[in-house]
TrEMBL record:
Functional summary from the UniProt entry: RNA polymerase that catalyzes the synthesis of short RNA molecules used as primers for DNA polymerase during DNA replication.
Organism ancestry: Bacteria, Pseudomonadati, Pseudomonadota, Betaproteobacteria, Burkholderiales
GO biological process, one term: DNA replication, synthesis of primer
Molecular function in Gene Ontology: DNA binding; DNA-directed RNA polymerase activity; zinc ion binding
Zinc finger (CHC2-type): 37-61
UniProt gene name: dnaG
Catalytic function, reaction form: ssDNA + n NTP = ssDNA/pppN(pN)n-1 hybrid + (n-1) diphosphate
GO cellular component term, pick one: cytoplasm
Similarity comment: family membership: Belongs to the DnaG primase family.
Name of the molecule in the record: DNA primase
Source organism of this protein record: Oxalobacter paraformigenes
Record-linked PANTHER family: DNA PRIMASE
Amino acid sequence: MIPQSFIQDLLNRIDIVEVVGNRVQLKKAGANFLGLCPFHTEKTPSFTVSPVKQFYHCFGCGRNGSAITFLMEHSGLSFVEAVEELAQGAGMTVPRDDTRVSPEQRAQKQAKTLALTEVMTQASRYYRQQLKQSEAAIAYLKKRGVSGEMAFRFGLGYAPATRDSLKNGFENYRADELVEAGLVIEKHEDDRAVVSGERRYDRFRDRIMFPIRNTRGQVIAFGGRILEKGEPKYLNSPETPLFQKGSELYGLFEARQAIREAGYVLVVEGYMDVVALAQLGFPQSVATLGTACTSAQVQKLMRQTDRIVFSFDGDNAGKGAARRALEASLPLVSDTKSVAFLFLPPEHDPDSYVREYGAGAFEKQVEGAMPLSEFMLQELVAGNDMNTLEGRARAQHKAKPWCQAMAPSALRLQIMRKLGQITQTPDDELEAFLEVARPVARSRRREARLPRPPVVGLERQVMRLLLMYPQFAARLSEADIGAIVDFSPDKGDLLKTVLSAIRELGEQGSYATLVEYLRSGKVDCEQLVHETLDREYEQELALMELVGAVRQIRSRVLASEMEKLFSSGLVGEEENRRYYELKKQQEELKKEMAQENLREKSF
C-alpha cells in the first residue's frame, strides 16, 4: 500500500491543468480551464479543470476528481499505476513498502524541505547582490549581449572567487542545510584540508549563477558558468531532496506563458542560449541540465504544449544528443503531440544564428524543423545499404525497440508503412516481426447528469468552505464546532469527520488531497463535493463568509437556548444565571458583527 502521506505530497506537487491538458485540449475560461469532456460525446464544452482546487468536473456526465482519478478514468490505469505515472513526471519515487509515515516523521520531512528551500532562496538573493558589485561579471554578461532586464527576469547572480564567500550571505556557515542543498562542500576527516581547519568551502566560485526553479517558482538548484577559462565550463548543483536533474528544465518556469502563446517549446543546449533567445524574441526556450534528455523532461514539456522542437548543433555530438532525445520522446509522442529536430549549420548556435540572420529567419528554421518520423527513419537507414538484404534487415532490427516504445497510434502506423516501403517488406510481415500491438478502441460509458446543488443551510456552507480551504479549520474554536453540531445534529458526524481528516493531513491539506483522503476512507462526501464544484472564491472573501456563517450559527444557537429558558419561566436560580450568561454572549457577538459590518463598509 502506498502511504497516504506520499499521495498527499504528490498531489501538492503536480498541476492538474498540466496533467489533463496533456490529454484534453483546454482553453482558459475565467479562473478555470474548459474543454470537451473525454468521458462522453459532447459538442458544447462542459468539462472544467480548476487550478485553484486542483480538481476536474464535467457538468455533462458528472465525472470529477483529482489528477489521480483522471488518469484512472481516462487511461484505464489502476490506482497504483496512476500514482506511479504522476510520480515519474514529478521526479518522485513511490515507496514500495507498507510503512506508514508518522505525523512526526512527516513534520520533520516538511521542516527539512522548508529549510532547504529557504537556504536556496537566501543564496539566490546573495548571488544577485554580488552580481551588482562585480564589474567583471557585469562586463561578461554585457559582452554576451545580456541586458539588465533579462538578468533580472532570470534572477542571474554571481558567486565570488573566494573560497568561502557564502559566509557573508549566511549567519551560520556551518549549518547542515548548506551541504544538503549542494551550496557548500565539506571535506572528510582524512582530507588534507582538515589540517588547516578549512573543512568547508563553496561549491560555486567565480561563476555567473543561473537559478533553476521548479514549476512553483522556487529556487531548487543552480547552474554556474565560469567567467574565465577553466573546467568545467558549467557546473550544476548535485542532486538533493529538492532537485533531481533528470526531471527539471532550465527556464521552464519563466517560459510557461510564452510556450502557450507560441504553441511550441524550443529546447536548446545551454543556459546562456535560453537567456539570449528570450532577449531576442524567443522566450519559449528551455534547456536540459547538461545531461541527455529524459522521458520525464519530455513529459513535463508535453504538459505545456503539443509541439516540442529540439535544437542541437549539427556536429556528431549534436546528432548524438538528438538521438537520445528521440529515444526519450518515443513513448510520449502521439497523433496530437509532436516532436521535431532543428539542426543549424555547424558554425551556429541559436543565439548566433538569430543575431546574424534575424528572428524571422530563425522562425522559418523552427517551422521547417525535421519531424520525429523523418529523423527516426533517417537514423534507421543511416549506415545501412538498402540495396542489400543485410542492410534492410539491420534497419528492421534497429527499428524494433523504437516501434515497440511508441504507443499504438496513426503516427506509428505511418512510420511502419514507410519503413516497410524502404525495406521492401509487406506491412503484415513487418508488423509480425516488430511484435507491436494494434490500437484498441475504448468504449466510454456515459453517466447520468447530476442535479445542480440545492440551496444549502449555514452548516453546509461552513463545511463546503472547509473543503475548499482546509486551512480555515484552524480558525474554528471548540465553541464554534460545538455550536455547529448543536445547530444541525444530523450533520455533526460529517463535520467531525471532515475536521479530523484536515487535522490528519496537516499542512499538506488542500481541496484535492482532502477529497481524495475522504474518498479513500469511504466517507460519503459526494454531495458536499458537488456543492463546491462550480464555486470559486477569493480566499479573503471565503474566510469572511466562513466567519459570518459561524457567527450566524452561534447567534441562532444562543437565541434558541434563550427562548427555551424563557419559555420555562426562569423559575430556578440556575436557569436565571444561564439565561443572563447567554444574553451577555449574545451582546458580545452582536458587537463583533457590527464591527465587522463597519470594516466592510469602510472599503
